[in-house]
Amino acid sequence: MEPDHQQLVQLLPLLPVLAELGRTEHMTETAEILGVPQSTVSRAVARASAIVGMDLLVRDGRGIRLTSAAKTLLPYIEAALEDFQAGLDRVRHESDVVRGRIAVSFQHTFGEATLPLLISAFRARHPNTVFELRQGPRDDCLAELAKGEADFALTAPIAPEGKGIRSFALYREPLRAVLHYRHPLAGRDRIRLSELRHEPYVTLPEGVGLRALGEALLREAGFRPRIAFEVQESTTVRGLVSAGLGYSILPPAGPGSGTGQFLPEAELGLVEIPIESPLAFRQIGMAWRERNFEPDAVRRFRELVVAEGEELLAELVKARLGNP
């Protein structure tokens, strides 16, 4: 093997790390985005520098700085990765056109009504389309989208638009304090979260959008919650609150959220109270990757979501909010 070709083969696995590091210029952030230890990023840079024969990074105070050699290489690295992604997209396009396959990653609560309504409208027009559905926390959904394992990610908060990622807001809904129906504050029209400072909190796992939104509201109220239970999905959260085991912060109950139980004889029940905060809401939206070769089925579903998604979900939103 020619020396130059051998160097190229050695560098190829390191290109994604170098490209992301060139964008962030930060070791820790790059490691978090790629989902690898920081030591892996450091070793990749050291190996790439050795192969190239010159330093690609230098220390700059507590941070790092790209060398002129790295800045020269970076556009070529990005172009190579974009060309390879275009090739993958074309291969998948040629396959998916035949199969009519659409992969959607979504948070658990959107599997009860939001996503089924969109899929139902689409399948009414394209009945042979196959949907591959993956449930998981928001962070996992966005990671699958970024890696090309999903065509769409349905999340809240809505995915931020960035390099190669586009998104569309479908609807917005309030977040409410969920309390046992005999809680001293259960009769309130509105509630300040600071009034719950010393009470046990029922929450969802790390990486779930609702957990992050709830903790942001509690920080705004001036305290960190005393977590009593951490459970996998909101139906169990409602069940624990119904049993008087703590309070939580959730979107309204109704179609697409799970309502829990109400059994006064067993002291089992809950109420939802509006929160006094301009931050007490979540935005639900669909995100997708920009692609050079977009399969026809994927394109049609994206167009339906953008053109008709809000209208298709309007009745669901009204029901969730208790509007007539």
Describe this structure as you would to a colleague.
This protein has eleven helices and twelve strands. The chain is an alpha/beta fold. The protein has a five-stranded mixed β-sheet, with helices on both faces. A three-stranded antiparallel β-sheet has the order 10-7-11. About 45% of the residues lie in helices and about 20% in strands. The relative contact order is 0.14. The N and C termini lie far apart (about 75 Å). The model is unreliable at about 255-260 (pLDDT under 50). It is globular.
Features:
324 residues, alpha/beta
SSE topology sketch:
Blueprint: H1 3-11, H2 15-24, H3 27-34, H4 38-52, E1 57-60, E2 63-66, H5 68-99, E3 101-106, H6 114-125, E4 130-135, H7 138-146, E5 152-155, E6 165-174, E7 176-180, E8 200-203, H8 209-220, E9 226-230, H9 234-242, E10 248-250, E11 270-274, E12 281-289, H10 296-312, H11 314-321
Parallel strand pairs: 3-4, 3-5, 8-9
Antiparallel strand pairs: 1-2, 5-12, 6-12, 7-10, 7-11
Helix pairs in contact: 2-3, 2-5, 3-4, 6-10
What is the count of DSSP helices, taking H or I runs of 4+ residues? 11
Q: In oligomeric terms, what are we looking at?
A: single chain
Q: In terms of per-residue confidence, which ranges show pLDDT below 50 for 5 or more consecutive residues?
A: 256-260
Radius of gyration: 24 Å
Tell me the structural class: alpha/beta
The first-to-last residue Cα distance is 73 Å
| Spatial strand arrangement across the major sheet | 4-3-5-12-6
Largest sheet: 5 strands, mixed
Helix and strand sequence: HHHHEEHEHEHEEEEHEHEEEHH
